[in-house]
Amino acid sequence: MWNGELLDLDAYLTRVGFRPDPDADAITTLRGLHRAHLRSISFENADIVLGVPITLDVPSLQEKMVRHRRGGYCYEQNLLFAAVLERFGFEVTALAARVLLGREGDLPRTHALLRVDRKWLVDVGFGNGGLLTPLPLLQDAFEQQGDWAFRLDLDDALWTLSSYQGGEWLALYDFTEDPRTRADFEILSYYLSTHPSSAFVGRLLVQRTDEHARYAIADHRLTVATPAEGSRKRVLTPEERATVLRDDFGLELPAEVERPTATG
């Protein structure tokens, strides 16, 4: 279903620096792949800013994120990862979530995530402080991942993933287990990558989370956030931004994005 047969698995594993242990159990392999992917492939929307169409077939995802060492947003990241997991023999179901981040109301389900082997929440595409490793899909599941703490709550078939930040639990997103297909994601992705009201259109967004902090660039502003200390922000010059993108996010973005016209 996820076209894993079209994936150059060796090239992907080289890209993320992961070599599976043939003696490891399935969850150890899953956790290792998840962490390696996040460490190596940053969240970014440069193509959307430039008006480049987002294509979600495996050869295109591989060309962009593996061969050209770029990043991507949730649909690109999780669909590539679904193909990887399929090659490893995992059962992968795509789901869709409403991004909350403290908001309430009638929000659309625009975030792509994965359920693996019907018992793991897997998500390498949520740039805003998401999971570092898979989380058991269980009521009241709790896990400390580095300095970050996550929990899952279930209320009448609606799951909510929360992260402990600044002394309180922040709801990141909620979702049901209704399966989604690549075609569903293609429609959602087209809207999010082209509609003027989309948060991804018009400004560069780059994000990466490790065990201790979340690093985010919004146009020319760099934010470094930790669960305990909150956020620190500063404005980057064009030269600083190019250096940070390369050294801290592992990205060499298209020249049109790397040469901004403003620094505020």
From TrEMBL:
InterPro entries: Arylamine_N-AcTrfase, Papain-like_cys_pep_sf. GO terms for molecular function: N-hydroxyarylamine O-acetyltransferase activity. The keyword Isomerase does not apply. Its EC number is 2.3.1.118. It comes from the Bacteria. The keyword Membrane does not apply. Keywords: Acyltransferase, Transferase. Belongs to the arylamine N-acetyltransferase family. This is N-hydroxyarylamine O-acetyltransferase.
